[in-house]
Queue: 3 jobs
Job 1
Amino acid sequence: MDIIVIQKNVDLIDLSKKYFIKIISFPPHMIYKFQPLDKSFMGSLKIYYSEEIKMWTRTTGKPIQYDI
């Protein structure tokens, strides 16, 4: 089971390099510093993303598929 998780992580890293996406990792004790960001930025992003998903499924009749 651990080998599968490692392979998916390697695939994710390769995919992020291909599309020039930076992956940032923070230690758990640093997360509390980002709580204001969660309310201001991520809250709005969650709302708009949810609306886009609803519009997509209504217009196409297809569910969103995540292929990672």
Job 2
Amino acid sequence: MALRDGDFILIEYTVRVKETGNIVDTTNEEIARREGIYDSNKVYGPTLVVVGKGWVIKGLDEALKELDVGVEKEIEIPPEKAYGPRDPSKVKVYSLREFRRRGIDVRIGDAIDFGGQTGIVKSITGGRVVVDFNHPLAGKTLVYKVKVLEKLEEPVEKLKALVAKHLGIPLEEAKVDYNEAEKTVVVNIPVKIMTKAGIQYSKIALVSSIYEFFKDSVRRVVLQEVFERKIESGEAGKSSEKGESKGGEETSSESKESSQ
């Protein structure tokens, strides 16, 4: 059955540049390590896509509608439906003195943020720095090997996938309770990501997505942070002997954030 706009699907993929054969992205950790593109900040494994929402490049988004669940397919995507053609006007020349004045140490190949844009330093000669602000894959034809693993139907499964995507955690670590009668969603925030850079923005984006996709079925979202004290077995035993604990001592601190 063909997929439609708004469908929640889990996909896996590997993408290479047609002209060179170089693999530039993948959801497979083993392939990423083998190809030297492993990113320790990335969560590998099946990734959520909501068809038609522009979460992936245009060419892939369109092609997904023609795929069936469980079938792997190779898709060729031209620059116009990927990262666009190269734009010569996005190649800028700056004075090396300007970078030094801002305390920026530049080297060829560096990715730098300059003037609110991210570019790659292409050359440094005669006191001049050439920076290319085109996307690294601009002008490239991409070949995706993609497979739709599953189409999510149940609300809780969709919610878990949204949590995993926005918080940057493995799908199996997403903890969600959904009370359909009260139209309330409770999300447990893992301790390990509580100090992660940009986590507050991730939370806001998650809540926004939940309200977008569950307009009529969710009125309240609770983001819950639970801290549990780990008790050594010996200490728990002593507490039990003194009658100070029911089944072992536990101390927890809980904070909740809600958005409506």
Job 3
Amino acid sequence: MRSLHDKLMNLRQRDHVKPALKQLHWLPIQARVQFKLCTLMHGIHNSQCPAYLSATVQLVATTSTREGLRSAATTNYTTPRLRTKFNERAFSHAGPAAWNRLPEAVRQVQTQLHFKKLLKSFLFNEFFMTAFYHCRCNVCCS
């Protein structure tokens, strides 16, 4: 992928990639993982995924202890309690965690094409327009 950047953007070997990613409107790897998780969760939420995937997650509203609470009216999914940090990589935890971070306006979109468009814009803004993803160089973070 780095060689593709070099060819498209005329980058030298020691140039920073972040400005090129911003210009091409490409998501970094961590954001792509979040994009894929949220896309799968959108399919589950709209009953467009296989049963084995939807069986791994559960809406907060379907939890018996939440019936009368305000959280029962949301589109949040439960994230299971885990014993180790490694287990956070499992879809049963990572999928709902990624979905629950999305704004309600993005989650409520029904069509997959429109959802992906809003999701990519949300993730792009989150990773490039906030201090979360800033590196420590003086080139792209000034």
